[in-house]
Design goal:
The chain is 16% helix and 41% strand. 17% of the residues are buried.
Length: 164
């Protein structure tokens, strides 16, 4: 009986590990993998020359946000046939003054390249970003160019978790 119980426990733990590992697998930088709803969970200034945002941040910008901005979302919608990919800005559960909770507004269009270069376009403005991490549950992007300080580059990152 103890043997069966132990074996059952090992199977459950192995399945749980597989689920966690499948969520952490890096995905290719494609429209299909980026499409979906992403909730902002972090925004920070990285360490000097840390272009991936994997070192301890130097400044937590997210902590300085109003609570109503901390659950904002971005929705990437893949185009159907000849249309362009569109993206939307979403208001989360907590809305700021004059906003509507759980609503989205269309902002512009977007493209992504296999290299991770993400361009968002609105009006006549192009915002270039670099996707540095994309898994089934996590997205981290940074502005394409960093801020130059003496002999180093400092990058700002935004991190999201997939909600849909």
């Amino acid at each position: 009986m103890i043997y069966i119980l132990s074996l059952s426990l090992l199977v459950i733990m192995a399945c749980n590990d597989d689920d966690q590992n499948s969520q952490e697998v890096d995905l290719l930088f494609t429209e299909d993998n980026l499409a979906g709803d992403w909730k902002r969970i972090a925004e920070f200034r990285g360490q000097p020359n840390d272009s991936l945002g994997i070192l301890e941040p130097t400044e937590d910008l997210f902590a300085q946000f109003e609570n109503c901005r901390k659950d904002d979302m971005i929705r990437y919608v893949k185009a159907i046939q000849q249309e362009e990919n569109t993206y939307f800005w979403g208001i989360g559960e907590i809305a700021c003054h004059n906003q509507i909770a759980n609503s989205f507004i269309e902002i512009g269009t977007w493209t992504i390249q296999e290299s991770g270069k993400l361009n968002r376009f609105y009006s006549d403005i192009s915002e270039p970003f670099v996707v540095v991490l994309l898994t089934s549950q996590q997205l981290r992007i940074r502005k394409e160019s960093g801020m130059e300080e003496p002999d180093v580059l400092i990058y700002e990152f935004t991190e999201y978790e997939r909600i849909k």
